[in-house]
């Protein structure tokens, strides 16, 4: 079986350091708001080149508190992509604002800037581009639109830690960047974790207050907040892993390159498009084919796991039914949802296994063409 990812291999390679870090926390007796969380915030801020990093319980909370910190609420509209994980629009709904979906660029699967412009109204308060699969969205044009209309940009970087757009780290281009440390992410904890980053002192202070029950001072609560803390054990684990992130992302890029070099010539398959000037981190390596479902079945039959991220675009999810979108309203996202297929990718994926995946895809495409 070739899995989508194998976290045990990464643990094996770092076992001594990780075990020591976890034991250190257990021995310290300090599990919340301790030195590892503070150090991890400083280390991530330095890595990304941003002034403030606020550690949270999840990427979902980072998006939610980002919108709260910007003062977005009922009556406001937030434009985002329908082709993402549900957390992106969950955050918009949780603050009482309305999600407005712009269709995607079919080559990159990210928000199409041309689609954004025509959806802007006086109520639009923020744009949430998602750097899906670890590939930066077209930030240059998205930022230009946002500046022109005085709208905030919240980057959903759950899948893109370490990716660069125009030489800049994703998450540092808009007002706020939101990261996830879910175990399968390029930088993953052994539980939930997330982070909000910003260059604004005001936004960082508000997010810090919101994460601890709406108050900067203990037992004084200025507004309705939440309990959203990264814990010391997760922070200690992430501090061991952070110095390896650049190498892991390089390895992911090399694997992606090998896939693309060998799959590019298959007529039925579209390989990922790398936008000039962007440095993706391949959280997922995602191909596209009209024979997606049969290809997935054939790969499964020979022991190769694949995944569909995501089978139903968010404008057609029951949770968003009140927004009144219909099938056909966002055709690019709907087509992508029917055609994308993510292949196994993780830094430790061996060349032999990768060659097996490539050969199996070529064979499946040939079999389909012969029918
Ligand atoms: C694009 C995107 N946004 C947000 C999230 C939410 O992150 P978390 O699972 O840490 O809440 C995820 C994670 O799955 C994601 O992939």
Topology:
Blueprint: H1 7-28, H2 35-48, E1 52-56, H3 59-69, E2 77-80, H4 87-94, E3 98-101, H5 113-117, E4 124-128, H6 139-149, E5 152-156, E6 164-165, E7 168-169, E8 176-180, E9 194-198, H7 201-211, H8 232-241, H9 245-263, E10 278-279, E11 285-288, H10 292-301, H11 331-339, E12 340-343, H12 351-370
Parallel strand pairs: 2-3, 2-4, 4-5, 5-8
Antiparallel strand pairs: 1-9, 6-7, 6-10, 8-9, 11-12
Bound molecules: pyridoxal-5'-phosphate (PLP).
Main attributes of the structure:
2 domains, 371 residues, 3-stranded antiparallel beta sheet, Aspartate Aminotransferase, domain 2, binds pyridoxal-5'-phosphate, 7-stranded mixed beta sheet, Aspartate Aminotransferase, domain 1, 40% helix
Task: State the gist of this model.
This protein has 371 residues and is α/β, with parallel strands linked by helices.
Could you explain the architecture of this structure?
By secondary structure, the chain is α/β, with parallel strands linked by helices. The protein has two domains: 7-243, Type I PLP-dependent aspartate aminotransferase-like (Major domain) (Aspartate Aminotransferase, domain 2, 3-Layer(aba) Sandwich), CATH 3.40.640.10; 244-370, Aspartate Aminotransferase, domain 1. It is built from twelve helices and twelve strands. Helix 6 (139-149) links the parallel strand 4 (124-128) and strand 5 (152-156). The longest helix has 22 residues, at 7-28. The radius of gyration is 21 Å and the shape is globular. The model has no long low-confidence stretch (mean pLDDT 96). Bound molecules: pyridoxal-5'-phosphate. Pyridoxal-5'-phosphate is lined by residues 58-60, 84-85, 87-88, 130, 156, 158-159, 180, 182, 192, 194.
